[in-house]
Amino acid sequence: MPEFQEPDTFAALEKREWAKADVAQSYAKVFAKAADMVVPTLVAAVGACDDYDVLDLCCGHGNVAVGLLKAGARVTGLDFSPVMLEMAQAAAPDALFVEGDAMALKFEDQSFDAVTIGFGMPHVPDPPKVVAEARRVLRPGGRLAFSVWCGSEVDTALGYVFDAIAQYGSSGITLPPGPGANDYADPTLAFPVLEKAGFTNCRQSVVASKWQVNDPGAPYGFFLEGTARGGALLRPQPLANATAIRAAVVSKVIEKHGPGPEWDVPIPAVVTVAVAV
Ligand SMILES: C[S@@+](CC[C@H](N)C(=O)[O-])C[C@H]1O[C@@H](n2cnc3c(N)ncnc32)[C@H](O)[C@@H]1O
Fold this sequence. Notes:
Rossmann fold, binds S-adenosylmethionine, two-stranded antiparallel sheet, 21% strand, globular, alpha/beta
């Protein structure tokens, strides 16, 4: 009799994918070229400066930590992926990095002046819990800032790839239920969650992050190799589906951004900032 296999949960999928060295390293090397462009906005949004204690949640390979250190802050980074933490420590040796879950922080109440979360919100099963934890560890007046990719209502590589998956992907390949990838870019969703947790003065700004590529299919590869959610949808596709998805992404890049031979492919982000009451 075949062994019964527990269905994957969103939490298990995220933990398993980010623990893979090839996924984490590919994210850091290529996908994060766009995420890196958002770092200055996150650092400015929390007002990081000398002697600020900043907690960087879902710190990944340490790109936000590097920006915070440059602004003079003392930085603690937290992530649940040991591979990411190893890269972060190498990139930002002056920061302290700890392994942990962003939904259950082992820090004292009111122990930080600011909290940053670079593209972590879509990856946690319970984003309001992370917001509540951020509020708990922040001193009154401290700021929380987080970034989230814009959804396909704007011109974005994320839309090219996920629309192509919706159109050409195998119907048998789905993700376990979890938060939407772009939910927290939406102020009507993000602001009430922030206010309920004890934040005020919620604001958002858009960053025109992008990838510079010389292959119009590159964004397909970036999602395939360097993301948890996209990778879990793309890696198991049968060859015919994978080929059609990639071809649709190539067509979209050329249709929107010309014949090349080089392309600036937009993948804009929203940065949300709020002040702890
Ligand atoms: C898309 S990467 C973002 C990395 C980096 N902050 C940036 O801005 O590019 C998401 C990171 O969140 C981490 N992560 C996801 N869920 C987490 C959780 N519940 N607790 C801690 N880290 C988590 C992953 O391991 C991964 O490093």
